[in-house]
């Protein structure tokens, strides 16, 4: 299946008005040519997802960026609903020849706790990488290329300089992915 030539950012924050970090990341993504940002909570406030339309957007993309805060060691509920509805087994991965094979999966997420909370004896009791398995396995099952996640720990308490540096890093990486996008001739 063709990989598409765009980047689709699936932005899912249930309370964007309270998010400094994710809001800035979404704004940065909107400024990168070749990137489409889908604000899922704005698009689907009733949680009724147009699977056929979303699949067309995914099919036209070579990179899917899942951008959200980590909530209870996972993704926000609307993004989980989006995955359940859009990534139908027959479409997404059946016999590893599904629509997602060859596309890339990039998790760009934030946490409220600092990295020190993600260790034995810390608030969350285990390394943060332990919580990435469901994301990574979703990519693997669908035949997608897993890109190392970009995680912003302690987002709510981060000073402005560190936040802006993280946003700049994200914008740079996203721009590099956009610049290296496969063309129709590839």
TrEMBL record:
InterPro entries: Flavodoxin_fold, Flavoprotein-like_sf, KefG/KefF. Keywords: Oxidoreductase. It comes from the Bacteria. The keyword Membrane does not apply. One of its GO terms (molecular function) is NAD(P)H dehydrogenase (quinone) activity. The keyword Phosphoprotein does not apply. Residues 7-173 form the Flavodoxin-like fold domain. This is NAD(P)H dehydrogenase. The lineage of its organism: Bacteria, Pseudomonadati, Pseudomonadota, Betaproteobacteria, Burkholderiales.
């Amino acid at each position: 299946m063709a990989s598409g030539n765009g980047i689709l950012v699936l932005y899912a924050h249930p309370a964007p008005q309270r998010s400094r970090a994710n809001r800035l990341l979404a704004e940065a993504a909107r400024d990168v040519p070749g990137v489409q940002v889908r604000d899922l909570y704005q698009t689907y406030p009733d949680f009724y997802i147009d699977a056929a339309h979303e699949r067309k957007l995914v099919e036209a993309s070579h990179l899917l960026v899942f951008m959200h805060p980590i909530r209870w060691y996972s993704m926000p509920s609307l993004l989980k609903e989006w995955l359940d509805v859009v990534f139908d087994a027959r479409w997404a991965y059946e016999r590893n020849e599904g629509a997602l094979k060859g596309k890339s999966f990039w998790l760009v997420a934030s946490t409220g706790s600092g990295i020190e909370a993600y260790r034995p004896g810390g608030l969350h009791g285990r390394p943060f990488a332990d919580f990435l398995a469901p994301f990574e396995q979703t990519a693997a099952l669908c035949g997608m290329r897993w890109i190392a996640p970009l995680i912003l720990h302690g987002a709510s308490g981060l000073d402005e300089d560190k936040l802006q540096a993280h946003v700049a890093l994200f914008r740079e990486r996203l721009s590099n992915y956009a610049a290296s996008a496969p063309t129709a001739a590839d």
